[in-house]
Amino acid sequence: MQDSFQVKMDEFLPLRDVVFNTLRQAILTGDLKPGERLMEIHLANKLGVSRTPIREAIRKLELEGLVTMIPRRGAEVAQITEKSMNDVLEVRRAMDALCVELACERISEEELDKLKLACEGFEQAVKTKDAKKIAQADVALHDIIVQATGNQRLIQLVNNLSEQMYRYRFEYIKDFSQHDRLVEEHKIIYESMVRKDKDTASQAAKTHIDNQKRAIIKQIRLEREKR
User: Fold this and answer.
1) Is there a contact between 166 and 204 (Cβ–Cβ < 8 Å)?
2) Which residues are paired to 76 by β-bridges?
3) For 159, phi and psi rounded to 5 degrees?
4) Are 9 and 18 in contact (CB under 8 A)?
5) Beta-carbon neighbour count of residue 47 at 10 Å?
């Protein structure tokens, strides 16, 4: 088990929630890898807590589909499967297309300026070759578009799905060969929104997801072959 994550105390949150958030983030960013066993004693020692909040966190992560209970082995990080990825990306594809269509109509000049800066920020993050920084820049860019819809129910739905989406997005972003394509896709979406061209923006958003899907399937199959 890697030692690249640690518990970050928050005086406003109960310990069980802090432990849950820590383990969840470690799974979403790949610090805890698919198939890796989650041993209560090891995690408790590593995070400096008792086994009780670890056990509670694992139970909640299982409900979210991020942890799987294996007979005679215990808890392990859920595998990234083509089925689970398809389920998430099918929904996200439709929602992203709707978001850019609404944002084309409703985005303010100030938000367009923020989106332009976010596109530039993503391009700079790509140059660092740091997958976490790139993923954060990507999330920040898409959040501007989602907020620009002004539709609170849609914002809520996207946010609920975005944590699950992060895991697949991170797998995609780790493939450095895709970065130039990502930069270009963001540029097309931004320029379409400046022109208020809903059709081009919507198609670009769908293509953005379709390309992610193909790249992640390729990685899933490569991992399967290694095993």
Assistant:
1) no
2) 37, 68
3) -60, -40
4) yes
5) 19
Q: Tokens 């000049």 — which residue?
A: 109
The pLDDT tens digits for 36-73 are 999 999 999 999 999 999 999 999 999 888 999 999 88
Per-residue pLDDT of 87-139, as tens digits, reads: 989 999 999 999 999 999 999 999 999 999 999 999 999 999 998 899 999 99
- 8 Å CB contact between 135 and 170: yes
Quick one: which H or E segment has residue 111? helix 109-128
Q: Which amino acid is at 169?
A: R
Rounded to two decimals, the pTM is: 0.79
Task: Work out the angle between the directed axes of helices 131-148 and 109-128 (0-180°, nearest 10).
Answer: 170
SS3 of the chain: helix, strand, coil, percent, to 5: 75, 5, 20
Q: Tell me the HSE value of 193 on the side-chain side, using a 13 A CA sphere.
A: 35
CA distance 119 to 106: 19
Contacts of 127 (CB under 8 A, 6+ apart): none
CA 214 to chain centre: 16
